[in-house]
Amino acid sequence: MANFLRATTGSFFASLATTFWDRRAALHQTDLVGGIDPNNPVIAQALSPLSQTGLEPMQQVALVMRNVTQQAYFLSILDFFYLSTIALLCLIPVVWLAKRPKVQAGVVIAAAD
Asked: Would you tell me the crossing angle of helices 2-34 and 57-97 to the nearest 10 degrees?
């Protein structure tokens, strides 16, 4: 029973982590794309080397979107690590307050399932 619960809980939290990662990536991608304005001289200056390499305008947009997507996933994994750190810090007191296992003659007696 304990093995079943451990496997089920692991699967549940793996799906939660994946969902969190994807949704945060979509949020970051929206924020990053919102800052791209072709009329901005800084953006135009950043895109000018792409046109000098012979890329078509759609290829330039695809390259920029690929970089934006990579950065969005990077930012979302940072968010996941921040959340994991907070969860770990909140669980430290649980470890400190947990009962110690019973010891008899130097042997640890495990609780029966």
From this structure: 140
If one counts the domains in the chain, the total is 1
Is 6 part of a structural domain of the chain? yes
pLDDT at residue 105 greater than cutoff 80: no
Residue 29, number of CB atoms within 10 A of its CB: 19
Counted residue by residue, the chain has a size of 113
Q: What is the pLDDT of residues 1-56, one digit of tens each?
A: 888 999 999 999 999 999 999 999 999 999 999 888 878 888 888 788 888 888 88
DSSP tag of 98: S
Is the distance from CB of 33 to CB of 68 less than 8 angstroms? yes
Q: Which domain holds residue 49?
A: 2-108
Give the C-alpha separation, 58 to 99, whole Å. 63
Domain annotation covers residue 113: no
Residue whose tokens read 């969190």: 20
Residue 98 within any structural domain of the chain: yes
